[in-house]
Amino acid sequence: MADWTITADTSAAMLDELPETSDIERNWRAPEVSERKRHLASAWAWARVTYGDFVFSPQMRPNGRRPRDNRDLAKYVQRRWQHICRRNGTYAWLRQRLTTFTGELIAQLDNETDAAL
């Protein structure tokens, strides 16, 4: 999972399940749907699947131990990390979807590992 990320298609499928925007805006701010949000979600999923710290995710350090290449993306993930871990609103919805997604991914990886043994 050294260079893993949620694909644009998978991200789009998750966003298709987002509640109606008018319902969200009534209670929270308008949801941000962007490439940066996809990378934030990827870092969260990577940390959950690997039981690692998000600072070592490909979104934060795409070249492993070398310094960050994309400082703007890394800063965005760093600033939003507390929100995706704890906040309500669209972050809670995203966290719920990612929990289901990562559970399925972990099961898939476990099945592949068992088959290889």
Question: How does this structure look, described?
Answer:
The chain has 117 residues and is an all-alpha fold. It has one domain (8-116). The chain is 64% helix and 0% strand. It contains 5 helices and no strands. The chain has helices spanning 8-16, 21-27, 35-50, 71-86, 90-116. The longest helix is centred in the C-terminal third of the chain and has 27 residues, at 90-116. The mean pLDDT is 79.
Question: What are the defining features of this structure?
Answer:
64% helix, single chain, mainly alpha, 117 residues
SSE layout and pairing:
Elements: H1 8-16, H2 21-27, H3 35-50, H4 71-86, H5 90-116
Q: What kind of assembly state do the chains in view correspond to?
A: single chain
Q: Tally the helices: what do you get? A: 5
The residue fraction in helices comes out at: 55-70%
Structural class: mainly alpha
Strand content: under 5%
Distance from first to last alpha carbon: 19 Å
Give me the strand/helix succession.
HHHHH
Main beta sheet: strand number and arrangement? none
Short précis:
By secondary structure, the chain is mostly helical.
